[in-house]
Amino acid sequence: MALNIAKVANWLHQVDKARAVVGWWPAQFATDDERLAYKVQDAFLKKQVVKQGPLVGYKIALTSPQILAQTGLKGPAYGPIRKKRVFEHKATVRADRGADYSRLAVNPLIMDAGWNGGSLLARPNKDWSKLDLGNLEGSISFDGKVVREGHSGDVLGHCYNALAWLANKLGGHGKTLKKGMIVSSGSMVACQFVPPGSTATGRIEGLGEVTLKYELPR
């Protein structure tokens, strides 16, 4: 039976509004067709923008060997960044309510906004063009202790490669990058699961850092 794009997008929207933990992806909404998965993403985005603001860019997922090894996926994939889901420098979120990351698949990830709940941006470095963007060190710390380190060259070899991949992929989908859009070019480390009550800091040499407070569940 053919996948009903509107039905899947509506289900995602209802789950999103209810902030529900859904376990695993329903079998009736599964597809092996990547292009169809992106069409579901587009339909879901039309519902998201009503509350979360317009499209302001794209996040690229699954770009480094560490994240591919962790998930077992081949990547990359993209998802839309919505204006009201962009935060600056620091933010606070509630602790994860039990999402199961043990059985990931790329097409459900694509349909569900490309693993992209929000974007946290560091303060801009006006001299970024003087940096060797393909040769920067990055780290994730919990309460000041470094738990994982990575290298910008792990992001498809260079962040410009990720940007080129996105531009080409969007072009194949009839979309374009526009001046002023945000592009998150991908993680240089595997996903790190922040202990509830802790503060996580992401830092990239020369580019800046962001801080996320992970509140205890209510």
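(ticket continues) Second input and output from the same batch:
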Amino acid sequence: MRKGKITLGVIAILLVLALAFVALRNSYYLWLVGKFQDIPEKFWLHRVNSPLKMKEFSEKYSRFEMDALYNEKDRIFNNSHDAGDGQVPLSETLKFLKPSKGAWFDVKNLTEANSFNAEEDLSKIVKEAGIDKNKCIVESHCVPCLNFFASKGWKTAFYLIGEGKRQEDVKTQIYEAYKSNCKYLSMDGHMYELVKKNDLLKNKKYLVWYYWEPWYKVNNKKMYQDAVKNKDVEVILVKERGHFHR
């Protein structure tokens, strides 16, 4: 009996090691394939929240997603995901964004109360950086805020919150997005299959996040091919931490 348990234990360990080997080999294979491919323009780099990260990848990717927190008192944008992440002026990061490239601003705290000043200040720093507003996207969950930004010439994206939400909640959000003036609907990749089947959103384009995967995996894994090839998916966020991720 004891020998049988030992044998089963050895088999289980060997099976785990074999699966790990296959997974690592598959990852290496996809990385190797990527070496012979160009990064598609619809692949934007996720969470570029420091000037050094922007500088590191400014030549590699054509577009970049940045988190932004608006400080209305000081009239500045902080290039951070959370308030506790420290102070990095968005204007400093934009100094390393080439004017020919585009930006996606995920404004975390946009409200109806601060949207007027926020739009004015974001327009100012984008202009100072020499960036074309037409190449920029402003993302938020606040529909009135996004409608205001759209009236000022910005491309806007409604942030569809899916994590921890019931399907009925998601449907309510989809209806909000449908009524808005937003050009884009922004969503986690796990929600893509649900959203693309909704007839209300046929007039919207999609921004899909696969922020847990590097570009070469998204570009070559079968499970992502529908989004990669779908012309209604204009942007796919991909992961690359680099040396200066924050």
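Agent notes: The CA atoms of residues 100 and 243 lie 24 Å apart. The longest strand covers residues 63-71. Closing as not reproducible unless the customer responds.
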